[in-house]
């Protein structure tokens, strides 16, 4: 168990109590528990609990990975079983850098998810189609992300491969952020597999260049 996962689990114990935390952590990945509906998932108490962790406790330094890859969320949960994520993972493993790259997922309503956590509730158990993101909650997404982004200055290089929707959210958040970040954007073309492969190969080259 990596330090970040332990931090998150300890946080749930502290905020929810051991019984409730153990119950939700036992939910199997892929079971859709949370669905966007009358109550927007940005307002769900467990999602807001995650936002609090992101803003108050999340620290990329605990993982010690100087390079980062940002990808969009996937309809398949957990993210790691989706085709695009498997391609990126294969590239990183092939280059021997899988343990040197911090991987983030840009997601409504989770905002930003370190992929170390993607098999845990609620990240592995929600459904929020991008077309359901209203202007009100898009503004909230941008506001929350702009507050989290300064924490990513720890990373030497950040590669983002995102479709237009998520790319625009990240760019707007960057413009509102208090700390300038240098992020290399890779266009997420219709050939998504190729785009993801290019991004993963690029971050792998940066890691290997330093080692």
Tally the beta strands: 7
The succession of helices and strands, N to C, reads HHEHEHEEEHEHEH
**Helix amount, in percent?**
40-55%
Number of helices: 7
Low-confidence stretches: none
Side by side, the strands of the main sheet go 4-3-2-6-7
- Level-2 CATH architecture: 3-Layer(aba) Sandwich
Taking the alpha carbons of the first and last residues, their distance comes to 25 Å
- Chain-averaged pLDDT: 94
CATH class equals: Alpha Beta
Q: How many structural domains in the coordinates?
A: 1
- Secondary structure category: alpha/beta
| CATH level 3 topology | Rossmann fold
At the fourth level of CATH, the homologous superfamily is Uracil-DNA glycosylase-like
Largest sheet: 5 strands, mixed
- Beta strand %: 15-25%
Q: Whole-number radius of gyration?
A: 16 Å
Shape: globular
Description:
33% of the residues are buried. By secondary structure, the protein is an alpha/beta fold. The model has no long low-confidence stretch (mean pLDDT 94). It starts with a helix and ends with a helix. It has a 5-stranded mixed β-sheet with strand order 4-3-2-6-7, sandwiched between helices. It has a two-stranded parallel ribbon with strand order 1-5. The chain has helices spanning 3-16, 18-25, 45-56, 83-94, 135-148, 164-176, 192-210, and strands at residues 34-35, 67-72, 101-107, 111-114, 126-127, 157-162, 183-187. It has a single domain (3-210), classed as Uracil-DNA glycosylase-like (Rossmann fold, 3-Layer(aba) Sandwich). The longest helix has 19 residues, at 192-210.
């Amino acid at each position: 168990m990596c330090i970040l996962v332990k931090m998150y689990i300890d946080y749930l114990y502290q905020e929810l109590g051991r019984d409730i935390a153990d119950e939700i952590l036992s939910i199997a990945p892929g079971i859709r528990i949370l669905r966007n509906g009358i109550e927007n998932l940005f307002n769900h108490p467990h999602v807001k609990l995650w936002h609090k962790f992101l803003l108050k406790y999340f620290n990329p330094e605990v993982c010690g990975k100087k390079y980062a890859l940002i990808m969009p969320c996937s309809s398949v949960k957990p993210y790691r079983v989706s085709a695009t994520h498997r391609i990126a993972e294969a590239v990183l493993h092939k280059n021997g850098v899988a343990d040197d790259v911090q991987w983030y997922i840009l997601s409504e309503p989770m905002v930003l998810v370190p992929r170390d956590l993607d098999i845990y509730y609620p990240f592995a158990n929600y459904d929020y189609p991008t077309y359901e993101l209203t202007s009100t909650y898009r503004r909230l997404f941008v506001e929350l992300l702009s507050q989290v982004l300064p924490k990513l200055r720890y990373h030497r290089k950040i590669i983002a491969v995102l479709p237009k929707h998520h790319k625009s959210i990240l760019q707007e958040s960057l413009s509102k952020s208090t700390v300038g970040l240098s992020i290399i954007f890779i266009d997420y073309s219709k050939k998504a597999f190729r785009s993801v492969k290019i991004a993963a190969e690029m971050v792998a080259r940066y890691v290997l260049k330093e080692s």
